[in-house]
Amino acid sequence: MAQWNLLYDLYERRLRSGLSTEDLPRHVGVILDGNRRWAKSVGTTPTHGHRAGAGRIADFLTWADEVGVEIVTLWMLSTDNLSRDSEELSELVKIICSAVESLAQSEKWCLHLVGDLSLLPLEAAQQLRISVEKTHNTTGMIVNIAVGYGGRREITEAVRALIREAAHNDISLAELADHLTDSDIAAHLYTKDQPDPDLVIRTSGEQRLSGFMLWQSVHSEFYFCEAYWPDFRRVDFLRALRSYAQRERRLGK
């Protein structure tokens, strides 16, 4: 075991030393997938799987911070997840609230909420807001907490906001349609004023976005990892960064 740990450490250091700061992503999005399947594979409950996944979050943020990533977006609860069994969903929301509170108490990162909190129980939404508010003066890495998030819903809400804004300013729908630009919609997304994700990582072997940052990920690089989220290691993250650094980013050109 000691020899294996030594080899693992050497491999991890080799990966890290091969990465250039210039080739690293500024913004990394993560689809934290596989908690339930991990739980099934080890013969435990979905709730235990969600707890194990929550326990991996601070580790990941530490790894990202160490290499100089500026923004991380964590997809912790999708709009689709809200249709799950009510008991499991209730436990998952509690776990998320506890995890976010723990991140806030660490005073390491500046947290932002990304999603529609009106879809959550009132008490949970308020708890999340309080936790996040505590970090607004933190100068560390920005961490977007995507809860009650769906890409289609985000774009729909952005368009609704534009229409309401036009109505408030006595601008007709025809005028709005004639002058509407991509930048107008981007300015009303949950991640407004932030750069789009350079790299999107999804764990558990699934190779799809499932609605994650549909607008923002148009030029993102994608990395799909076989490991379930609770098993995601620093070496897996470094491999994702290596893969990203080796790609020629054309950004649609």
Task: Provide an overview of this structure.
- With about 250 residues, this protein is an alpha/beta fold.
- The protein has a domain of about 180 residues: Undecaprenyl pyrophosphate synthetase, CATH 3.40.1180.10.
- The chain has nine helices and six strands, in the order αβααβαβαβαααββα.
- It has a six-stranded parallel β-sheet with strand order 3-4-2-1-5-6, with helices on both faces.
- The relative contact order is 0.18.
- The model has no long low-confidence stretch (mean pLDDT about 95).
Name the descriptors:
Undecaprenyl pyrophosphate synthetase, globular, alpha/beta, 6-stranded parallel β-sheet, 253 residues
Order of strands, main sheet, comes to 3-4-2-1-5-6
**Global geometry:** globular
Number-wise, the strands total: 6
At the first level of CATH, what is the class of the domain at 25-151 and 196-245?
Alpha Beta
State the helix count.
Answer: 9
Mean pLDDT: 93
Give the helix/strand class. alpha/beta
Order of helices and strands: HEHHEHEHEHHHEEH
Helix content: 40-55%
* Main β-sheet description: 6 strands, parallel
Give start-end ranges of low-pLDDT stretches: none
CATH superfamily caption of the domain at 25-151 and 196-245: Decaprenyl diphosphate synthase-like
In the CATH hierarchy, the architecture of the domain at 25-151 and 196-245 is 3-Layer(aba) Sandwich
Distance between the termini: 49 Å
